[in-house]
Amino acid sequence: MNDVYTYRIGDNLYLNLTNRCSNRCTFCVREEGETYEGYPLWLKEGEPSAETVMAQIGDPRRYAEIVFCGYGEPTFRLNELLRIADRVHAEGGRTRLNTNGQGDLINGREIAPLLKGRLDGVNISLNAPDAASYVALCRPAFGNAAFPALISFARSCKRNGLNAWFSVVDCIGREQIERCRALAEETGIPLRVRTMILPSGQAEKPKDI
Fold first, then answer.
1. Which phi and psi angles does 52 have, rounded to 5°?
2. Which residue in 197, 181, 200, 199 sits closest to 189, CA to CA?
3. Which end of the chain has fewer CB atoms < 10 Å from its terminal CB, N or C?
4. Which structural domains are found in the chain, ordered by start?
5. What is the pLDDT along the chain (209 residues), one digit of tens a residue?
6. Phi and psi at residue 185, in whole multiples of 5°?
7. 3-state class (DSSP) for residue 192
C-alpha cells in the first residue's frame, strides 16, 4: 500500500509530512498502530516533497482548512511546511498547524516569525501544567527543556500576531486541566479542551479539533 500524505476527515484535509516526533505521548494514537481513521499514516517510503503534497491537495478551497497534522511533528519539515502554506494561501485556502510547540528546539531558531502570515491558526498541545508532568505524560526527547520551549514558542506566536491557542486532552483530569487553564491565562494564550473518543475495544484516544 502506498504511503498516505494527505487524508480527509470531515471538511478538513490533513497533511502527513513526517513520522518524526520529539514526543512519545502516552495517549498518542501512533502508540496503537500504523493507521488512524482507516488511513495508513506510518510512512514507509520516505517523507514527501512539497510538490508531491501540493499536487495531492489540488484546489485548497474545497476544504475548510488545510491542517499540518499527521503521525509526526510537522515542524520537522519546516521548509516544506512554509512552501505548502504559501501555495495554499496563494490559492485561497486556509491553513492550521497542530504542533507540540517544540519547533524552536527542533530547528535551532525561533520559528514563529517565519509562520506569521502563513498560518491562520496554530494549535499548541499543552497537556500538562509544568515540566515534570509534561515529561511524564509526553516523554519528550528534549527532556526538561521541552516544556519551557513550548511556553516560549506560544509567547513568540502571540508576539508575532499569530492566532494561537493551547489544547489539552481531557484524559489528564480536571485538576490538571484547571492548572493548565491558569497557566494559559498567565501566558495570555486561549485554552481549548479536546474531547476523547472511545473506539470499540480500544483505550481512550483524543479526537482532533
1. -65, -45
2. 181
3. N
4. 6-206 (3.20.20.70)
5. 589 999 999 999 999 999 999 999 988 887 777 888 889 899 999 999 999 999 999 999 999 999 999 999 999 999 999 999 999 999 999 999 999 999 999 999 999 999 999 999 999 999 999 999 999 999 999 999 999 999 999 999 999 999 999 999 888 899 999 999 999 999 999 999 987 544 433 444 444 43
6. -65, -40
7. strand
CA–CA distance, 163 with 122 (Å, rounded to integer): 6
Provide the grid cell at 34.
Answer: 500504523
- Give the cell for residue 157: 506566536
Greatest CA separation for the chain = 47
CB 147 within 8 A of CB 131: yes
- Which amino acid type is present at position 129? P
| Nearest alpha carbon to residue 103 among 66, 151, 65, 165 | 151
